[in-house]
Amino acid sequence: MSTLLELKSSVLRQVQRSQSLRSRREPPPTAAAGPPTPTRVPDRVALGVAKGNGEFFERMHKIVQKQESLLAATHAEEEIIAGPPPPECTDQAFVLEKATRNELDLLYEEAVYTVVNRVGVPSPEYVTNEGDLFNYLQKVFDMSQEEHDIILQRVRESKRASFSLRVSVMKGKNLMAKDANGYSDPYCMLGILLGQSPRETEERKERKFSFRKRKDKLEKRSSVKEVLAARDIHVTEVKPETLNPVWNEHFAFDIDDVQNDVLHLDIWDHDDDVSVAEACRKLNEISGLRGMGRYFKQIAKSVRANGAAASGSEENADDFLGCLNIPLSEIPVVGYDKWFKLEPRSSASKVQGECHLILRLFTAQRDTALTKMVSNVVIHQKLLSQILEYEHSHAQKEPYNWNGQVCPAAWTVLSHHAVQADLSPLQQAIIRWQCYSSHHHSQRMCYSLLLRLLRAVEAEWEAGDVQKELESLLAQSFKLYCDYCLSQMKSIRQVFPCTSPIAITRCELMLRTIGQVQSMQAFKAVCSNRNELHLEIATVIKKGTVEWYEATISHFRSDEGTLEEQLKRLVLVVDAVCVDVQSGQNVYNKLFHSSVKVDFFSISFRQLEKLVADDVSVAMERVCGTLEQESSRLSQTMGETLFELFMSLKTLKRFREFLPLKDTKMLALTGFHNWFKTSIHKWLQIVHEKSMERIRKAVEQDQLEPVLQAKHSISAVDVTTCFGQVREFWTQLAWPDSAGAFIFVTRLTDNFCSEAVSYSELLKRKIERSQLGRDHRSFTVQLCVALNDTEHVRVYLSGLPRELDWRGVEQAMEESCGAEGKEQVNKALNGQLYNADLDLQRETKRMITHLTDKMLPELRRYIQHISLSPDTINNDDAVSPLMKYLDSTLVILSESLVKENLARVLQSLWELLLRMILDSVAENRGVQVEFYTRFQYTIETLVRFFHADGEGLLLEDLKSGDYKALDEELRLNKCSSFELIEQYFLEKISQQRILKHSRFGRISVKCYYDAPEQRLTVEILHAADLIALDANGLSDPFVIVELCPHHLFPNSRSQRTQVKLKTLHPVFDELFYFHVSPEQYRHRFACLTFTVMDYDWLSTNDFAGEAVAPLSDFCWPGRPNATPAGKTVQPFILHLSRQKPSEKPIMKMLEARTGDREAQEFVRRLKEIEKSMEEE
């Protein structure tokens, strides 16, 4: 025997019947909050079904996806667009005036004078050829050869520059210890040794000069050739008890011969109270003293005069620690800043250690016209500005990114001039910053250069060393540069667009320069009134944001055209704002926050958000005013535009997540969704209409063929895709208002449910129209596909609680309205889904009925074959045609149906077979037992077939309902007439036991059994609440009592009470005796029957009711009624019943046995009672 193919799980039990979706019956209280999660199919399948409406949903889908793609495109553009950055904003207020020809001539003379009088040892990068320097200067100043020659001649005829040497004695280290404590008390003596002839120079090599000689050596020497003016001797402070002294003292010396003079420095250990140091100080007060001999004699006298009292010996004289001799001709152009190793004064001297000196040569007097007019600072500033203009204009590559590096000739001229002008490192740093920053205003350059210049100023800054002129220059440069940068920040979107990586880099560097300015001590000192630069930055960001928004509005012309056109342009504006905010959050905010500690995003977002809210609210007021008119209808294009505007605003509002918590309150777009309430309602209606139209077209074009690996068709995919898109639209709306969300979710759920039911009805009608002319197999397959389509949509609906976030709506309503709000959501939404599920199951059942109706002729033929088969045919042979047909049909069903539908079809087919067999058995009552035995075998075979060893229907589902009735019918038909009568009384006893109340009255009796005598005593006491069967509203009741069934008690006769006239509550109090043997009362069906009749004089007595009492209740040994004390037991109440015997199947079976006298007699008696009941 074949088994079921591909059956894997049990059938879903039938849901209780309910009203249709249209009547909106409430769900049962125990209904679950959400059906099980459905199995989803891919959302994006090739939708060739309903093209017109598909385009509508595609447009809506693109609107949903637009924001992500729009913002994602911002990042892509940042890396795609290359090339030079846009030009920076320039203002004439920032551009310096061009120098006049006369000013240039004077400045050119200064430059030529610098070249002619240059001193110092040039480094390798310097240009040493004077002609090359002049050629370069001619190009810088656009000077002709003739003009150059005139100026050069004038310079050569002018007085040569006089030079001076600035010496800074900084510190010493690792000096020799001369004192007993292991330390020394060092100090320095330094001066200029005047220029020597070549011969004298050779003699100097034989002996080293020292400022101090012992007395005996001085006296022996006839003369001292080194000439050192007293005013040129300087001494540092004494640093006690140290071998690493720090002096940090500065001295200046006039130089007569830069090429031959020598700087000499001695370091001494101070030992006596009045030393050479003090003598030198006093000696420097004497004017006109010349010659080293006189000088040292004076020192010696001073020492002797002051030191004799102390010791009277030379032992207290200062000790020599070392000396230095530095020829001025060896000093570099930019000077020395280094450690010099100390030298001994003779080969016998023992010294160690080093001394740190800073040496600078500069001009003490310059014979130029410009020097007499302005300071050296101004001259150097003008010279550098002129060179910068020339150098930048000749930059070959990326002038906007010029790093400020000048050619060697320019560097040579500038270095010599800075040295000759005695400009300190701080002065040079300030001048360079001022010139480069001013030049940047008119011709942009690399911001990293400006950042380095600022750091150089800060590194050299010492507030007390800055002259008033330089301080004013620095303050003015800071002001102009800050104002310039603020102007760039105001136009940051145009000057530094996010689409240009180069521009963003420049923006970052510019902000870092402003951050550097903010933190500089120099800026705080010279611009003390501008200590809130971050507030100025915030202000220009606001102004720039407003100007950008106004320009965007003007560009899109959002105030022109019809209302719909204005809304479309407004969408473009909001989208542009979203992109700008995204750029601000991702790019600009990081730059501003890290560099100047300003929250660019918060400032610009709050400004743009308010501007957008103001414009959109005005437009939406007009829209709402139009839609609220009764005759107004929202067009499809207007609906799409409003939806797109809503999505754009939602995207913009989402950026509030990046605001500080304190800034998220009271934003202008906080409640923007309220502007769209009316339009959303109308938009949902448009979506519903489009969905219905799409579903109709999908069904019309569907060939009802399975798609891909699934068992449903393309229309089911299209429907669920449509639902998914609508659900996605709702998800993207993310409606924040709980009450509004509840209304919209209810509307969406209702739309989904009605669309799903409509889809199933369309499928059913399509099946009905297409059944003609199709063979059974193709029709069955198509109907199976339609069933699967309905199930596919039904399963999708079961996931709506999750898809539409019912739980979130419930929680929101509970928070706002309490438990009543939650109950309202649960009741409304579950009610919709419950009724829709019932409707879909109803349509599924109708299609299944349609399928089984097609099978009905074949099934009837096979059932008839079993019924008419002669007894000589084997049962398997009689059932085989039916099973083969079912097996072949099941193959088709298993291949075509999903398991849920297969279970439903099998259950329906099983019920149909049961009814057909039951009808066949009912039509053949009274035949031979073999007939019923064969159908019993058929039922057992079908049970095994449909159960399929647990892979098919459940046994409890198979053996319920009609199966029980059929099984009982077959069992009873196989019984004898006596067995049927006994079964009849068993049913009567069973019904009597469960009868607890009756409108036909009751009777009170007492029964007890005398076992030795085998006598049953029956006391009929009284009756109550009998029904009125006479015209006077009363009855004349009496009771007939008898033992049943008669074939068990053949010798027993019925007995009756007296008639009680005109009463419904008769009192009888009569005794009756019956002989009952143990063999008789042991049968379960043995009983006493009490029949209450209404006595009529002129006609047949009327039946008032009956009751039965099983003998087992009071005859069995051990029962109280079966003891000698049985007379004292309490009476019991029997409720009367009035059932028509013909309604019982047993009656029909007995009646069909026309040849059985006992059966016919039993039926006759019961029919008399039924006839009496009908006559009433």
From TrEMBL:
Region (Disordered): 16-42
Gene Ontology MF annotations: SNARE binding
Locations listed in the record: Cytoplasm; Late endosome; Recycling endosome
Keywords recorded for this protein, A-Z: Cytoplasm, Endosome, Exocytosis
Domain C2: 144-303, 999-1124
Keyword Cytoplasm: yes
GO CC terms in record: late endosome membrane; plasma membrane; presynapse; recycling endosome membrane; secretory vesicle; trans-Golgi network membrane
CDD domains, per the entry: C2A_Munc13-like, C2B_Munc13-like
InterPro entries tied to this protein: C2_dom, C2_domain_sf, MUN_dom, Munc13_1, Munc13_dom-2, UNC-13_domain
GO-annotated biological processes: exocytosis; positive regulation of neurotransmitter secretion; regulation of dense core granule exocytosis
Pfam families: C2 (PF00168), MUN (PF06292)
Start and end residues of each MHD2 domain: 876-984
Domain MHD1 residue range list: 643-763
Protein family: Belongs to the unc-13 family.
Protein name stated in the entry: BAI1 associated protein 3
Source species: Pygocentrus nattereri
